[in-house]
Amino acid sequence: MEFVSSVGGDAPARVVVGVDGSASSLEAIDWVGEYAAVMNAPVELVAVWEWPNSYGWAIPLPDGYNPSADAERVLSESAARLLERHPGLSVTTKALEGHPAQVLVAVSDGAGLLVLGSRGHGQFAGMVIGSVSEHCAAQAHCPVLVFHRSHEEMA
Predict the structure, then answer these.
(1) Is the pLDDT of residue 74 over 90?
(2) What's the whole-model pTM score?
(3) Which alpha helices (H) appear in the chain, and where do they start and end?
């Protein structure tokens, strides 16, 4: 099976992975490592952050709150995890500001696959796709894989 870029050419299309440091995100990264190694596809890890919204009053934030630095840390740890298991992979990272669903859809343009971890909480919530995943599945410019955590962790 050959997996080529949706924008043409012979190079394998990049695999974009939305990362947030959650258990399902880490499992998705592990899956992507196996997939990208077999497909010889480059991997782009993307962490999206935004300032909390408030309607009418200020939200108290802890001292030193820096979502951009947190996103960079998660990306660094995720890339290290991926490269430790698959040293030959081509891995790039991006920390981007904005609403996660909108940013991930934009980044999916030209990708061969967008992979997201599901953040289901418990058995009932685990059956329902999250709003970011749902938006990406409906709007992304490429196929989307929503990776669910193992059932033992969801209970």
Answers:
(1) yes
(2) 0.80
(3) 23-39, 67-85, 100-107, 122-127, 131-139, 151-154
